[in-house]
Specification:
The protein is mainly alpha-helical. It contains 26 helices and 7 strands.
């Protein structure tokens, strides 16, 4: 029997994050909350000082934007603290209540600003004013507003939607409560009959275990448990899609997908091209699965066989300090300043909450606000996967840190489209370091296997998810109701298309869509794939010319949200619209399949 999971109050402080940048406690948080103006006070100020007056001068526009940003900054600090505390243990009533309080207040206090965008769009001199002082610092934001003019509603409608936003956004919270609080799993048994505690964080670890009985039992138990809620989850997910599709129609978009890509100024053709390029390269995935089948000695590769390492040696375990050292060595090509900031954050400033505890939110993320240090949540088990997770989330945190240092508040927040580039670049740098610089041959074998799994998980698997989202959204846009059976059918069909040739499509696979939290951040997952492809381009730039490549990466990290995502990436040397980025990424995939074939099949031939 594995050891039980500790309660939060049993975790040493050094294994948790330090949230003092934000608030010392919920008591301090409450003081700041009470100091906020009331909705009536905000409305009165806006009505008296700004409403109906924005066309008088650029100064008036500047002042209302400054007032909005000042209030927003305080709200974000309050929200981030409550959210992080809630992530520590989602079963704690106080943090859950406070997160709900600030979520509702956040929307209520910003709702009175609903008149701003519609009124700005009526200012005939705005196109000329936006590039001049004092509005020059808001030029990009105002340009984006003008770009979306046809999708902005009247003041009354915008105010109504702002007030409704907490209600319309509850699907993610419903999923989170089910996933993190209500969902509990039976123990699973390995080939020797030993029982193992199954949790979200341990699910992935068990699927990487060399004991196939444990992998199979983990997989079947997990999805047998999840599928008990299939109709409830289908209703919740359909509600999320229907809400998004309805809002897209209200705002005169061509569909839910376009409405979600519009904010980043991403053409739907780019989304479709990613799917098309992936489908055209599926023979490479079949080749990789064939290699896996031969190395593992399997008749067919089941889903629970896709994550176990091809390396024959037992997976190495790392202490926290060993992992930090590896990651810092790996990111050395990004420069001394980058490494020094990262080292201090990881080892001194407690950026990371890495202990596993009861009720802790599953998965990993990087968060924080403009006024705080970056924060990373993960659950450390010591696997190579955890080392990569640390490198990934550090990339996010360093991106946030450098953006905050380089940009004013309103331009510091970068979009999700570029957010995954820095994180996946760190993963690629870790791979290169371990393959080329580390002296442990067995570890290099494990990394080679991990790279293939990483590409297939971060690009191909995410594109499967993205295709599922698109296909579901198209049906909902066409007013087709979707049930659990419909979701199962769509998802199972895509798995057969992507993985079918050398895989056994287990009946449990059709239930996987139920447990993907990113489906509640709609059309998010494709950005993992685009970002991974972009990171491979930046890695190649660093290898070709280290100084110039480092300059490209720093351009990305310091631009923040001051440009459109595609313009930001183009300035960093990655042109998505050229059509070459995806092709180049699959070329690297093919090269690494060849390397793995040479390594593992040769070992088989010589009986190693």
């Amino acid at each position: 029997m594995t050891s039980s999971i500790k309660a939060r109050n049993e975790i040493p402080a050094e294994q948790t994050w330090n949230l003092d940048d934000l608030f010392q406690s919920f008591e301090d948080w409450q003081v700041a909350l009470n100091a906020l103006p009331s909705v009536e006070e905000v409305s009165s100020k806006l009505d008296g000082d700004f409403k109906g007056q924005l066309g008088r001068s650029p100064q008036k526009i500047f002042e209302v934007l400054q007032y909005r940003d000042g209030l927003l900054r305080k709200l974000v600090n309050l929200y981030v603290y409550a959210s992080l505390r809630n992530s520590e243990d989602v079963s704690v009533a106080e943090s859950a209540k406070n997160l709900g309080v600030i979520s509702n207040l956040y929307s209520s206090l910003l709702a009175p600003f609903a008149f701003v965008d519609p009124e700005l769009l009526q200012v005939k001199d705005l196109p000329q004013w936006k590039g001049k002082e004092p509005l020059a610092t808001y030029e990009y934001e105002l340009s984006e507003l003008l770009r979306g003019k046809k999708h902005v509603l009247s003041e009354t409608e915008e105010r109504l939607l702002a007030r409704l936003s907490p209600c319309l956004g509850r699907n993610s919270d419903i999923f989170s409560k089910w996933n993190n609080v209500d969902l509990r799993f039976p123990d699973v048994v390995d080939s020797e009959g030993k029982k193992h505690t199954l949790s979200h964080s341990r699910y992935g670890t068990y699927l990487e275990n060399s004991d196939r009985t444990l992998r199979k039992n983990t997989f079947t138990t997990f999805y047998k448990t999840v599928s008990q809620w299939r109709h409830t989850l289908a209703a919740n997910f359909y509600s999320r899609l229907l809400t998004g599709s309805t809002l897209a129609k209200v705002r005169s978009y061509d569909g839910f997908l376009q409405s979600q890509l519009f904010q980043d100024d991403i053409p739907t053709s780019l989304y479709d091209e990613l799917i098309s390029q992936t489908r055209s390269h599926l023979p490479l995935l079949s080749r990789s699965l064939h290699l896996r089948k031969r190395v593992l000695g399997l008749a067919k590769v089941h889903q629970f066989d896709r994550y176990v390492s091809l390396a024959t040696s037992k997976g190495r375990r790392f202490t926290w300090n060993e992992a930090v050292d590896l990651v810092l060595r790996a990111v050395a090509p990004l420069g001394e300043e980058y490494v020094a900031i990262a080292r201090k954050g990881l080892l001194e400033d407690r950026w990371v909450d890495y202990a596993e505890n009861q009720g802790k939110r599953s998965g990993a993320f990087s968060s924080g606000s403009y006024d705080s240090r970056p924060y990373i949540l993960m659950s450390w088990t010591g696997t190579l996967v955890d080392v990569y997770t640390l490198a990934h989330e550090l990339g996010h945190s360093m991106h946030t840190y450098m953006s905050n240092q380089s940009q004013p508040y309103h331009l510091a927040r970068y979009t999700i489209f570029v957010a995954e580039v820095a994180s996946t670049l760190n993963e690629s740098l870790l791979t290169e370091y371990l393959l080329k610089e580390h002296g442990d041959e067995s570890l290099r074998e494990e990394v080679c296997s991990y790279w293939l799994k990483g590409f297939e998980s971060t690009v191909i698997r995410q594109v499967l998810f993205a295709t599922f989202e698109r296909d579901c959204a198209v049906r909902v846009d066409a007013d087709e109701p979707l049930t659990a059976d419909a979701f199962d059918s769509i998802y199972e069909g895509l798995n057969r298309e992507f993985y079918g040739q050398h895989s056994e499509i287990d009946p449990e696979v059709k239930s996987e869509w139920m447990r993907i939290p990113h489906f509640y951040s709609t059309f998010y997952v494709y950005k993992y794939a685009t970002s991974y492809c972009a990171s491979l381009s930046l890695l190649e730039a660093l290898q070709r010319d280290p100084e110039a490549g480092r300059g490209q990466v720093m351009t990305l990290l310091k631009t923040g949200g001051s440009r459109s995502p595609l313009d930001t990436m183009k300035a960093a040397g990655v042109d998505f619209l050229s059509g070459q980025v995806f092709k180049d990424a699959f070329s690297v995939y093919e090269q690494n399949i060849t390397r793995a074939e040479s390594l593992f099949l040769k070992k088989q031939e010589i009986g190693a």
